[in-house]
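User: Structure with zinc ion, tokens only please.
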Amino acid sequence: MLAVRCPACGSVDDKVVDSRQSEDGASIRRRRQCLACAQRFTTFERLEELPLVVRKRSGERMPFDPAKVIDGVRAASKYRPITDAQLDRLAVEVEESMRLEGGEVSSQQVGLAVLERLRELDHVAYLRFASVYKDFDDPADFERELVALTKTTEPKRR
Ligand SMILES: [Zn+2]
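Assistant:
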């Protein structure tokens, strides 16, 4: 669904204010707001009909490829106890969460979505993936990431 017309004024310029997966998981319900007249309306989009494009830092656009996610995570999880089934599931979850973001996402968003899931799966793989994928602009970013990781792994004390 590329051009959505506002039911009130017919404008095709709108912004998505909320996206939710339907209960059967097969479609996405989006609340939209027309940029011309501020009318709010809802659209339903079938997941498999939605193109998912990844925008790289260079500006180049590529179709989302779950195999690339799997390759990247597999490289980061070398010698770690992560199964192929876990890799597959991670890629599916990342793809689903990216579809909820809209038809186009940045490679950084994909990387962060992978990290979110790796954090729960395996901390060593998470840190490896973070260091190569996250494109840290500043060494402090990596440190902040380590601190965040330490916080989540700290045993809970009562
Ligand atoms: Zn309108």
